[in-house]
């Protein structure tokens, strides 16, 4: 094996993120790597819109950028197969036809490929054209990472459903999207310029995603208008050469709300006919449409329950319509009652999926796949795997993941998700006392079902970073890799992604790897641990902290926290019976708080705050400590990133630095909000005396409190600036000055800070434009933002002044300031 590990090229050219991990950065190539430069590219299909043709063009582009050399493409004739040191790309069948026997190629499953770089030729042969394109991206990925080893291997997908979902609305907005407006829709129509769609297709194909549902699960029926169906065809035409099919989400009530019928009963013949007509029209324009995605009877969406029909009746209605075209129906199991009564101790939203679906097992047509969110509630930082995976033995299933970080920092926080997904995929349900990992269940290896796989809600937008943050793209990359091979190692995938996205520099690689691998544990620590869920504001933006919002409403994301106890009792013996939904071995584990893994303790058990964990700590002390630890880790991300200055182009370096600085501040907001909440509720002191005790802050009284009121409520846009002053009472020395302020949506206030009338900093309240999360219109945990001015020399008795100038509805509000000696986080 020859592996040339190349030194980094040093300073990578500025990049805006559009190419994602397909940058093909030039390699500082020695003559050894040049010896691996192919002389020609031979593609075995000359139809320009075929994936094999695209593979040829992609190779040419990649080689040109990596090697700075132009390599000719030939479109397959026999003689060229013998061309010395060519790369030959095509399907196994095309190769046999044009080039001769392919006896060395092992058996390939649908979409699989064989890559052979040994000998004089490179051969990339797919079972089908899609597979050939996947193999081409694999080869380019090796080269771009400076890996010129001689390899010969085949790889096959774990499952045929490797989909992404976009929650794009026809008006161009994206539900839970943080990367700007839709690349597909604007003003209730499909956009004319589909250039971004081509680039999305490239990214998806390169990680072997084979279908994209283009519109929101909360679907708008107008997508079915004839002109929109025609335009859907344009989108499908763009994706097709990349081997990506399109699918669409449907609104269940469309026959009535859009089609002019007075009914949408799935068993009514006029309704059946209506859907069949619409389906025929769509397939006329998009003959290879992957299928439909259905959210029904959920969160106010219409569904079959209106007519006392079952969910299977609904799914099968669509399944029959798409069957003649080979389409499938992804029917979401996210069905629950969002008006639950918390005074009923037995009520539990987590029970809903099994309650709604288990009795229907075996009643779904064979082209229906039940799409199941990974956990029983809703994309939380930690949930047990949904028990529904172990309850549908005769129904095809797919797991639903979320690349868009709805509850997990909305791309303004770094949270690398592959470890979370692997926790779920690896979980062993022990069905019939046999190994039954979720990954084997959803890929249909365990239980013999026809279809299976995964879908991830991605929600890229028109932002050049796609997701709103460069670092968040590791999640899309890792999702594709796991959809293909759910045993891929999160750290290995990450390292590949970093080399492809940034550079081969060893120190850069280790640093971004460490930060990313630490990011989910950190986020869990400061946002909600021991299985209590992400303690965000579930009634508003799902972004910042608001533990009070979990309880006393019908949504069922309860914690049941009171003055002495916390946690949902989901046991059979005394609780909601949820643990009983798992197969016996797993149910027994969760039934007892002794055997429940502690990171899920409060998911399954209602305990005293003084309950002792295995560590000997009480639950409440664990909360306090974990929140401090999580926020401290997040402070470290910024330092680690700053150690990379000069190794990354300025544009991306700054973009990420800004976000990590913001995250460092916001993790403190999370830490304090949650710790203060439980401290106030329980009255139990923090043994380390940190909670409620902030020696380096100025916030508890006049004058900043006064300013808070003044700026927060008195000023309007035309008012003059508000001013707050205080005299420093800290010992003289060098400090970092942290200012916590509220950055609201609807205005860009200006602040300036002075020490003894000398301006030491100023800033604008514009995070709504430069960061990626949903902005807030209130003074709350979402809008609280911290800015830091470093190395300020302060003398006891100095005057610190902050002037705030309101703008729009934003009244230049301040929260507090802190003067931080070196190394102190307060
Ligand atoms: C969450 C999310 C909604 C979304 C829903 C779904 O509740 O907040 O925006 O519509 O999930 O998955 O259908």
UniProtKB/TrEMBL annotation:
Q: State what protein this is by name.
A: Alpha-glucuronidase
Tell me where in or outside the cell this protein is found: Secreted
Give the catalysed reaction(s), semicolon-separated. an alpha-D-glucuronoside + H2O = D-glucuronate + an alcohol
* Gene Ontology CC: extracellular region
- The Glycosyl hydrolase family 67 catalytic domain sits at 146-466
**InterPro entries membership:** A-glucoronidase_C_sf, GH, Glyco_hydro_67_aGlcAse, Glyco_hydro_67_aGlcAse_N, Glyco_hydro_67_C, Glyco_hydro_67_cat, Hex-like_dom2
Report the residue ranges that make up the Glycosyl hydrolase family 67 C-terminal domain in this protein: 468-690
Extract one GO BP annotation from the record.
xylan catabolic process
Quick check: keyword Hydrolase in the entry? yes
Catalytic residues identified in the record: 299 (proton donor), 378 (proton acceptor), 406 (proton acceptor)
Q: What does this protein do?
A: Alpha-glucuronidase involved in the hydrolysis of xylan, a major structural heterogeneous polysaccharide found in plant biomass representing the second most abundant polysaccharide in the biosphere, after cellulose. Releases 4-O-methylglucuronic acid from xylan.
Q: Which UniProt keywords apply?
A: Carbohydrate metabolism, Glycosidase, Hydrolase, Polysaccharide degradation, Xylan degradation
Entry EC no(s): 3.2.1.139
Q: What protein family is recorded?
A: Belongs to the glycosyl hydrolase 67 family.
List the PANTHER family: ALPHA-GLUCURONIDASE A (PTHR39207:SF1)
Q: Which GO terms describe its molecular function?
A: alpha-glucuronidase activity
């Amino acid at each position: 094996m020859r592996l040339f590990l190349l030194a980094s090229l040093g300073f990578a050219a500025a990049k805006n993120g559009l190419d994602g991990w397909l940058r093909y950065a030039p390699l500082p190539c020695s003559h050894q790597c040049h010896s691996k430069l192919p002389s020609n590219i031979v593609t075995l299909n000359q139809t320009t819109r075929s994936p094999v043709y695209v593979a040829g063009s992609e190779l040419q582009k990649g080689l040109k950028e990596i090697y700075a050399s132009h390599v000719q493409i030939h479109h397959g004739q026999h003689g060229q197969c013998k061309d010395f040191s060519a790369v030959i790309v095509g399907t196994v069948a095309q190769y046999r036809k044009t080039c001769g026997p392919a006896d060395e190629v092992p058996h390939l499953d649908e979409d699989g490929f064989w890559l052979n770089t040994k000998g004089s030729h490179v051969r990339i042969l797919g079972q089908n054209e899609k597979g050939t394109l996947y193999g081409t991206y694999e080869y380019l990925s090796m080269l771009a990472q400076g890996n010129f080893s001689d390899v010969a291997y085949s790889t096959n997908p774990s499952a045929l459903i490797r989909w992404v979902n976009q929650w794009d609305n026809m008006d161009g907005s994206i539900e839970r999207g943080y990367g700007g407006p839709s690349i597909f829709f604007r003003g209730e129509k499909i956009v004319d310029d589909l250039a971004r769609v081509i680039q999305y297709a490239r990214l998806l194909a390169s990680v072997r995603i084979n279908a994209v549902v283009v519109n929101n699960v909360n679907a708008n029926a107008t997508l079915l208008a004839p002109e929109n169906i025609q335009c859907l065809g344009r989108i499908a035409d763009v994706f097709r050469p990349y081997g990506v099919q399109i699918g669409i989400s449907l609104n269940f009530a469309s026959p009535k709300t859009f089609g002019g019928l007075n009914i949408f009963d799935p068993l009514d013949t006029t309704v059946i006919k209506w859907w069949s007509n619409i389906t025929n029209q769509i397939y006329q324009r998009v003959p290879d449409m992957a299928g439909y995605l259905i959210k029904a009877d959920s969160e106010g969406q219409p569904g079959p329950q209106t007519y006392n029909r079952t969910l299977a009746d609904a799914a099968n209605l669509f399944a029959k319509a798409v069957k003649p075209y080979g389409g499938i129906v992804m029917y979401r199991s996210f069905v629950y009652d969002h008006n639950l009564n918390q005074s009923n101790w037995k009520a539990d939203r987590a029970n809903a999926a099994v309650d709604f679906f288990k009795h229907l097992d075996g009643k779904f047509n064979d082209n229906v796949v039940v799409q199941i969110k990974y956990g029983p509630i809703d994309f939380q930082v930690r949930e047990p795997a949904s028990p529904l995976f172990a309850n549908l033995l005769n129904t095809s299933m797919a797991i639903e993941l979320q690349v868009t970080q709805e509850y997990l920092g909305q791309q303004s926080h770094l949270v690398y998700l592959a470890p979370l997904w692997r926790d779920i995929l690896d979980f062993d349900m022990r069905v019939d006392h046999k190994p039954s990992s979720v990954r084997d269940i959803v890929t249909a290896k365990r239980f013999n079902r026809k279809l299976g796989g995964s879908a991830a809600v991605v929600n890229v937008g028109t932002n050049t970073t796609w997701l709103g943050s460069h670092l968040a793209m590791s999640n899309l990359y890792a999702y594709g890799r796991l959809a293909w091979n759910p045993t891929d190692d999160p750290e290995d995938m990450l390292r590949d992604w970093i080399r492809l996205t940034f550079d081969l520099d060893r120190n850069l690689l280790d640093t971004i790897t460490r930060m990313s691998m630490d990011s989910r544990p950190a986020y869990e620590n400061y946002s909600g641990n021991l299985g209590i869920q992400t303690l965000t504001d579930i009634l508003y933006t799902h972004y910042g902290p608001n533990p009070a919002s979990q309880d006393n409403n019908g949504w069922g994301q309860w914690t049941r926290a009171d003055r002495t106890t916390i946690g949902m009792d989901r046991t059979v013996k005394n609780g909601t019976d949820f643990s009983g939904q798992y197969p016996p071995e797993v149910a027994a584990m969760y039934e007892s708080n002794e055997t429940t893994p502690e990171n899920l303790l409060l998911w399954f058990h209602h305990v005293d705050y003084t309950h002792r964990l295995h560590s000997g700590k009480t639950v409440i002390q664990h909360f306090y400590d974990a929140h401090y630890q999580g926020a401290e880790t997040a402070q470290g991300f910024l330092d680690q990133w700053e150690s990379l200055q000069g190794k990354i182009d300025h544009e991306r370096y700054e973009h990420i630095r800004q976000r990590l600085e913001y995250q460092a501040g916001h993790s403190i907001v999370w830490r304090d909000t949650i710790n203060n909440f439980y401290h106030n509720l329980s009255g139990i002191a923090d043994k380390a005396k940190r909670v409620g005790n902030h020696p380096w802050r100025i916030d508890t009284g006049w004058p900043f409190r006064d300013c808070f009121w003044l700026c927060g409520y008195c000023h309007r846009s035309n008012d003059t600036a508000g001013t707050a002053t205080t005299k420093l009472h800290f010992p003289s020395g060098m400090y970092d000055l942290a200012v916590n302020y509220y950055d609201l949506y609807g205005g860009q206030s200006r602040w300036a800070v002075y020490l003894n009338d000398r301006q030491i900093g100023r800033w604008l309240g514009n995070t709504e434009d430069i960061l990626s999360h949903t902005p807030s219109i209130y003074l709350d945990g979402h809008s609280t933002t911290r800015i830091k001015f470093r190395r300020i020399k302060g003398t006891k008795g100095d005057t610190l002044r902050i002037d705030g100038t309101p703008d729009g509805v934003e009244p230049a509000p301040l929260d507090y300031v802190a003067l931080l000696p070196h190394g102190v986080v307060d």
